[in-house]
C-alpha cells in the first residue's frame, strides 16, 4: 500500500525520480493497460509548477512529455492490434478490469476517432482508447494524426497551465495540494457523468 500511495503521488514522483519519473508515468498511462492508475493530469500540472520554481526545465519537460505521450499511445495501439479481440476475453486481475474496456468502448461509440484526442483528458479512458483503436484496426496513419494532436494539446496545455499558475500566484506552493485534488476531481467528472447516464438508462 505504501508503494502504491507513492507512485500515485505526483509530488513524490517528481521529487524522487525527476523527469525520468514524469516521462515514465506519462508513457505507461498513455498506452500500457496496467498504467491506468497512474496520475496523468495532476502529474503534468505539478511538474509544470515545479518547473516554474526552477526545479525542472520547462522546455525539456513539455517536449519530453509530448514525445512520451505519443509513444505511449502508439505502443497501446500496436498492443491492441496484436492482441485483437482476445483482450475482451482476458481474465480480470489486479491490473485489468473489463469495466475499463467497456468505458473506453462507450466513449468510442459516442465520439468516434476524436476519442484519441478527447480521451487524453479522461482518466482510465486515456489508457484504453489507443488499445481499442488497435483492436478496431483503425488505420495507423489516421490514429497517429489524432495521437499527435491529442498528445500535444494535453502535454503542453496541462504542463504550461501549472507553469503559468506557479509564476502568477505568490506562494502558490501553499495551495498546491488543493489544486491537485481539484484537478483530479475535475478530470473524473466525465466518467461520473457517463456512469450516471448509464445508471439512469
List the helices and strands and how they pair.
Elements: H1 2-7, H2 10-31, H3 41-52, H4 58-83, H5 98-111, H6 115-118, H7 125-135, H8 140-168, H9 176-187, H10 189-200
Helix pairs in contact: 2-3, 2-4, 2-7, 3-4, 3-8, 3-9, 4-7, 4-8, 5-7
Word description of this protein:
Helices cover 74% and strands 0% of the residues. The protein has 201 residues and is mainly alpha-helical. The protein has one domain (2-200). It is elongated, with a radius of gyration of 17 Å. The model has no long low-confidence stretch (mean pLDDT 80).
What order do the SSEs take from the amino end to the carboxyl end, as H and E? HHHHHHHHHH
Count of separate structural domains: 1
Class computed from helices, strands and strand pairing: mainly alpha
**Low-confidence region ranges:** none
In percent, how much strand structure appears in the residues?
under 5%
Nearest-angstrom radius of gyration? 17 Å
Tell me briefly what this model is:
This protein is mainly α. The protein has ten helices and no strands. The N and C termini lie far apart (36 Å).
Amino acid at each position: 500500500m505504501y508503494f502504491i500511495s507513492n507512485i500515485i503521488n505526483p509530488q513524490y514522483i517528481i521529487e524522487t525520480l525527476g523527469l525520468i519519473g514524469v516521462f515514465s508515468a506519462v508513457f505507461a498511462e498513455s498506452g500500457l493497460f496496467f498504467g491506468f492508475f497512474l496520475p496523468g493530469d495532476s502529474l503534468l500540472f505539478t511538474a509544470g509548477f515545479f518547473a516554474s520554481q526552477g526545479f525542472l526545465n520547462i522546455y525539456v519537460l513539455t517536449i519530453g512529455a509530448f514525445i512520451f505521450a505519443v509513444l505511449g499511445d502508439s505502443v497501446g495501439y500496436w498492443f491492441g492490434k496484436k492482441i485483437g479481440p482476445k483482450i475482451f476475453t482476458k481474465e480480470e486481475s489486479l491490473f485489468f478490469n473489463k469495466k475499463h474496456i467497456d468505458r473506453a468502448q462507450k466513449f468510442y461509440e459516442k465520439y468516434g476517432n476524436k476519442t484519441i484526442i478527447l480521451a487524453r483528458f479522461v482518466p482510465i479512458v486515456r489508457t484504453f482508447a489507443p488499445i481499442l483503436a488497435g483492436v478496431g484496426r483503425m488505420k495507423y496513419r489516421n490514429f497517429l494524426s489524432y495521437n499527435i494532436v491529442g498528445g500535444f494539446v494535453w502535454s503542453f496545455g496541462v504542463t504550461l497551465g501549472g507553469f503559468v499558475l506557479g509564476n502568477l500566484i505568490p506562494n502558490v506552493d501553499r495551495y498546491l495540494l488543493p489544486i491537485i485534488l481539484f484537478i483530479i476531481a475535475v478530470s473524473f467528472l466525465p466518467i461520473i457523468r457517463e456512469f450516471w447516464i448509464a445508471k439512469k438508462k
